[in-house]
Write a structure and sequence with these properties.
heterotetramer; A: 386 residues; alpha+beta; six-stranded antiparallel sheet; four-stranded antiparallel sheet; 18 strands; B: 293 residues; alpha/beta; Rossmann fold; 2 domains; seven-stranded mixed sheet; 14 strands; 23% strand; globular
């Protein structure tokens, strides 16, 4: 689950990470008052779950409180379109109004889980404010790493190695190690999946500040991070995906094609998209029904697919393991009977209880296109449209 | 016991709820020796003919359980793995999905110092066809006795590959689902080593996914292997940066792309399948080519 | 550092360990009021850093508030002498007034550090209320153990294994695992060196309670356990030991003999006691001056020894490593000159700067008995008395 | 390098304060190659002729340090040990006393998975007389070149034993102070193994203390040894239950008593000295008895 920049900064600040002076505003009036309080130049930052906001007009400097009002008025209510959002963009319902800081150096700092090492890793670089993946690829020596051994936790020497490695010695060394330790602690205690400060700024007046911040929480751990779970901003998620989540379907992602897919298992679902592509088509969505063992869950999932105006054909590709194909078949029949999937519907069943499942489809009297295998199902779906 | 599971396996099931019970019965019906279930507080009961105990240690002491199959819900699954490990169960298979990553990080750290092997989590388990031993949730009907082993991060793609093999007339020695999470107990490379050393396996299907670098590590191992490997990478057409169910499948840098993985596997000598519908037919071609079919 | 029972119970309760209803009283009036509030029978428990209080008259039942007043009046201000305290006993300045609980079963539970495993270990037994060391020796199978791996922390299955092993199943299982988890957490988070609940009581009305509690904090970790460090009760420590601590000498222990010892290093200090015993004498104290590198620290240490009325001879046994013998010699000379050690003083120096040290003594014009070795020093000290 | 320290040892000193500097100079004067000091924030300076660096890694990279000697204050000492370990320093010697026990518990857990050997904490370090290599705080004058090795939990008792040996005309190969804390990096048994395998050592003095069971574990190892061991247990007359400086010396149960330890050592074939003044004379008797002196 992603946090907004302002939420991430509040969280980091609660662990002792220094952040620029600033407040969140949901109206131009509030933005003006905050700018007044801060005094001098301020930065107005549109709050949306996307990077690359600057180039998209989501970050602007206001010289005066009046200008802050004007910029906030423009931003609040807009759809911010960045290279990461897709063409619809994301709605801006609040802006962060912050002191404009005078930058001497920009550094990079983040914490994530390295799956192959099975440990959190703190990543640092002197090349702050840049695309860190590019830096990592082109100049790996510019990337510093420290792994956190769960047996002893993050240690002071690691913070020092990173701080000295970033060139933060002398008076900057203590604040730098404190910042690194606070960032790491915040990540570990909140079940973080990524915590990124890019850039960490050394100001001309000798402060170290988290000028921007991204923070995501491990979705699987939200059950024990209840306070953070409440910070979720549903406005930043696509309507269809919300609908799917409300129906208890964890993994639904809206895509750009016209073949709606209902599949069990993430791997099979990804492969179904691949097979559709190979057959010359495009999927309208990724949907992993998981081990949903009730016809109602299947009906709910098919309703989301069937009511998607982009969808011209529905492909059901199920290989039952824990999930039982007869239960899924019943759900497909119910959805068809309820008129939820008027589109041509291609069904491929295999695995657990496949005979019972196929029998149900056979006896339903409904017009399903039946596929025998994986590739055939994809081809039939593409044919159904063209 | 190159597949970690054979005629001598005695399976205890941790988390004997609806799913655990259903799969216990399927395993038993197939011929697997399921010796007990563990549900704290139900110790002493008998459910569906299986004795229930409060702790794994009791199941080990009384029934000599040597394989644990875990269906415990995600918030308690790491604890269940550690319990099996503390009872020195040599093979631990965790089906549970959505275990917090930081829980698995701690589990993995403990298992580094252990003689137990963990398969999963978020996996379909292991089946040894010749031994009629199943510790998992895979459908049995699609399998056919033979000598091709299947390894996969994704559960349903195990079934899909097996189904295609069977329809192509190719039997299987068994399958190992290593699991789709970012932190798993046994890597694809380690699973390949198990099958390379399994006398009943002659060739291997390896099914990877976008994200991470596990397939590149597997490719390194494939360079040292004698048995042919047919590989498929799921998610070649997935849009970057979206989480598609398997947390491990987030594209993280260029190494995580399907292209990079396919290239590494090809360079290592594996036969890479691009169309997921052609896993069976391509394996048939490889076997014919090598005089194995 | 030891906590009083009432402090230990407050600490445990703050982690969620259920304890009997009760409050601390420093006057008989308070005890009466508390007994009134609790209602019914209460137990009055003298607060002192010792076990075996019951047999020594430090734990009594009061049927009425008036009786509570009377018992508290007797206890407060007394010196409690138990088999653990020595003949002087320990002063009682407060009593814990608690509900009298109706006991069905008594169990044992503790957490300590197992040095050879380098892990905390939770120890449990059905044989509560007994001398656990005796149980451990005679019936080791009656002792349950669970080690806490720092790599993953204490796990739920371990609490369950202990609770089921204690026979706490059914309705008692959840409260039991919760108690075990809370006890373990309290130990780990406070740098505990021992946390013991003996007995854990299952009451006839189905509650689980910590009926008695001992808690010690690792002295080396008090710098980061400031709140707990404040709970220290100096009245429970011998005057001479306090004096030594105030002089910055960590390791001084008053003993029953008449030869005062100043030694560097705990091992050498213990061996000095052994050597004195072998020579037929008895040491008046154990004193490890450590690496004290100033004459002033030596003077302070010798003042404590010299003013001890039991001391009839002083033995200085120094083998310099980090500690320098010339600095120690200077301290001994200063103390002698200041009249702080009027007793016959045997000095044995060896190690770092020994020549300089011996020269200082030679040139001091003072009457020191010089010893060449370890055994000789002990013999000379014993001879000096007899 | 059976003593963990020899002519090829390059020592870095962590915590280059007053004590660190003083001992660095003594080590250098004795002939030991002290290559650098580490004090965060003083990197680049030179103190007493020693180059100072901010991190151990820098000292390893620049000066190929392979032994670390730690004088860092107790609250930060565990961190210092872990830093040396992360820089893959093969021998880490920690002089610092009063490190919180739970800190050392975590250190020990990490070092379980490491190739580094920790000596201490709360120890006088190691000296190899033949190699003129000293990584510790022991006085040098009392030593004499020879072939008896000394192992002790207590620092001052190392010196005492060495002094008695020298006065008895018996030279030493060196000494290892394993440290007086409840959790230490290298046990007495492990130190015995180092000397059993050291070609320059012919006989061993082992000095234990009351408390714990480390001497019993050492006794188990002595049963397998070829070299004679003379042992002394400090604290035979200590009153039970009092902490006498070494936290490890609290009497915990019957196994912790001097009697129990002496008996175990005697049963294992060691010569047990009861009077601490007779360590040297008893070793002389043993050496004569075995034709070694």
């Amino acid at each position: 689950m992603k946090l907004h920049e302002y939420q991430a900064k509040q969280l980091l600040a609660s662990y002792g990470v220094p952040v620029p002076e600033g407040k969140i505003a949901t109206t131009p009036e509030e933005a003006q008052i905050i700018a007044q309080e801060i005094g001098g130049k301020v930065v107005i930052k549109a709050q949306a779950h996307t990077g690359a906001r600057g180039k998209a007009g989501g970050v602007k400097v206001a010289e005066t409180p009046a200008e802050a009002f004007k910029i906030a008025e423009e931003m609040i209510g807009m759809q911010l379109v960045t290279k990461q959002t897709g063409s619809a963009g994301l709605p801006i319902s609040a802006v962060l109004v912050e002191e404009a800081i005078s930058i001497e150096r920009e550094l990079y700092l983040s914490v994530a889980i390295d799956g192959s090492m099975a440990m959190p890793v703190i990543i640092a670089s002197q090349e702050g404010g840049m695309d860190i993946e590019e830096v990592a690829e082109q100049r790996p020596e510019a990337i510093l790493k420290q792994y956190v051994d769960p047996a002893c936790g993050f240690q002071g020497y690691q913070a020092r190695a990173l701080a000295f490695g970033l060139g933060l010695s002398g008076k900057l060394n203590r604040p730098a190690t404190a910042l690194i330790e606070a960032l790491t602690k915040s990540f570990l205690e909140t079940d973080g999946s990524i915590a990124e400060i890019n850039p960490v700024v050394v100001t001309t007046d000798g402060r170290i500040l988290a000028a921007d911040a991204k923070f995501s929480i491990d979705d699987s751990a939200l059950f024990r991070q209840k306070n953070l779970a409440e910070l979720r901003d549903r406005s930043q998620e696509a309507d269809k995906e919300l609908e799917a989540q409300d129906a208890g379907i964890g993994n639904y992602i809206k895509l750009n094609g016209n073949i709606g897919c209902l599949v069990n298992g993430a791997g099979l679902a990804m492969s179904t998209l691949d097979a559709i592509k190979m057959a010359g088509g495009d999927a309208a969505n990724f949907l992993d029904i998981g081990t949903a063992n009730s016809p109602e869950a299947v009906v709910a999932a098919l309703k989301i697919i069937g009511t998607d105006p982009d969808v011209e054909a529905v492909l059901v590709n199920i290989f039952g393991g824990l999930a039982r194909t007869d239960i899924i078949a019943q759900g497909v029949i119910d959805a068809k009977n309820q008129g939820l999937i008027p589109q041509p519907t291609i069904v491929r069943l295999a695995g657990s209880n496949v005979n019972e499942g196929n029998e149900l489809l056979d006896n339903s009297g409904l017009d399903f296109v039946r596929a025998n295998g994986f590739a055939e199902a994809a081809q039939l779906a593409v044919s159904a449209i063209s | 016991m190159s597949l970690l599971l054979d005629e001598n396996s005695k399976v205890v099931i941790q988390g004997f709820g609806a799913a655990g019970q259903r799969e216990a019965i399927i395993c038993r019906d197939y011929g697997t020796n399921v010796v007990a279930g563990v549900t704290p507080g139900k110790g002493g009961q008998e459910i569906e003919g299986f004795p229930i105990r409060n702790t794994v240690q009791e199941a080990v002491d009384e029934f000599h359980a040597n394989v644990s199959l875990i269906f415990v819900p995600a918030p308690f699954a790491a604890d269940a793995i550690l319990e099996a490990n503390s009872a020195n169960v040599p093979v631990i298979i965790c089906i549970t999905e959505n275990i917090p990553v930081q829980d698995m990080m701690r589990v993995k750290r403990v298992l580094n110092n252990s003689n137990s092997t963990l398969i999963g989590p978020n996996c379909p388990g292991i089946i040894n066809i010749g031994a009629h031993a199943r510790a998992g949730i895979m459908p049995i009907d699609v399998y056919m006795d033979g000598n091709v082993g299947v390894i996969s991060r994704s559960g349903t793609l195990v079934y899909e590959a097996v189904d295609q093999l069977t329809k192509a007339g190719i039997g299987q020695s068994g399958s190992i689902g290593v699991g789709g999470d970012p932190i798993i107990g046994t890597s694809q490379a380690q699973a390949l080593a198990l099958l390379e050393n399994d006398p009943n396996t002659a060739a291997i299907v390896l099914i990877g996914e976008i994200g991470g670098t596990a397939e590149q590590e597997a490719a390194e191992y494939i360079k040292t292997m004698n048995k042919p490997v047919v590989a498929f990478i799921a998610g070649a057409t997935a849009p970057p940066g979206r989480r598609m169910g398997h947390a491990g499948a987030i594209i993280a840098g260029a190494a995580g792309t399907a292209e990079a993985k396919q290239q590494a596997l090809r360079d290592a000598g594996a036969t890479v399948v691009k169309n997921p519908g052609e896993i069976g037919s391509q394996m048939l071609a490889v076997l014919k080519d090598q005089g194995l079919a």
